[in-house]
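I would like you to sit down with the pair of lines that follows and say whether tokens and residues agree.
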Amino acid sequence: MNPYQYNQQRWKFFLLIFAAIIAAASLLYTNYLVKNLSKVERTKAEVWAMSTKSIMTMPDVDDEFITFVYSVRDSLAVPAIITDEKENIVFWRDLDSTKTNIKTTTKDSTNHHLEYDPHYFEKQLNFMKKSHTPIILKLDNGAKWMVYYKDSWFLQQLRVFPYIQLSLIAIFLIIGYTVFNSIRKSEQNLVWVGLTKEAAHQLGTPISSLMGWVELIKLKFDAENDETLNEMENDIKRLEIVADRFSKIGSTPVLHNANVYEVIASYIRYFKVRTSDKIIFELIGDKHVEAKLNIPLFDWIIENLLKNAVNAIASEGKITVKISENIAKEEIFIDISDTGKGIPRSNFETVFQPGFTTRKRGWGLGLSLTKRMVHYHQGHIFVKDSEIGKGTTFRIILKSNLTYEPTEI
């Protein structure tokens, strides 16, 4: 991992810890408030219950005092049900009026009476029993009343508020991070595009000059068929192709119909001359499949994969390129296998990330660029198989340019 990735991971870790601390603090503080408000509501419920008992059991007293008791009771009310010892409902407060007071009409339309929904009361009573321990009121005649209550609407909302708040903050942060990351990547892409185009521009003059010098040497020494000069000329042409690749970065590649086997074979002929004689190259498979390719970019894909295969082979080995076609899905499979050191299964996805490399002097951009260029060709690439000490196989899947009609029987 390079220093930039290390610092990035470290900052992400610190931010995650900081966010967890904020979330925990918010939940703890809200829980503290809920506990205190719950105590206050229980006190209110007790005062309300005693006020109700006083009103229902007190003898005839001053109207002004009764009005005062009613005011106290109503100001401290919470959703509650009072039952006797046999769980018969004596009184209730702040429940759904549409369930507790259902107006019905008898055959004689002039008579109305109220009915109650027993299922609603049963459900509410069970819920209140689970919510809080009941308040017990002892009457003068020795009987007992059980006061069951539940949290007020405000307290219920306060319990869920921190979760809603944290969820909204998390959504906002995710959206903000995504937008910021997208802007940062766009800026980085613009910088890379500018650098590559400038590199292509700077390479243009010396490449043209080298081509001229090679032609001059051939004429001066009558070396038109000299093998060394011909290989030098091939290398200069390869430099032209590299410069052309850099100049096209940031632009939508133009794809043309091409024979996949011939394109790969052409590059292998160039590449193996510049590689150790102890590495054997083998190209097998379907020689007739066609796909839409941008040949300079596709050569770059093959170049990166072959270079990685060569670097994975310690001294001697074999690199096999197999081309096959899935006729049913109209896809082309290109498998590039080597007999190198292999890749751990845990790194099958990581190898395509920018900056990932196992070499001391590597930049870790080769496979990342390769994956992007494969996507330009409307295909995808992945590690098909790998075994430590035995080798690796990368698979490229491209859309076939040939279509097949089902055979009628």
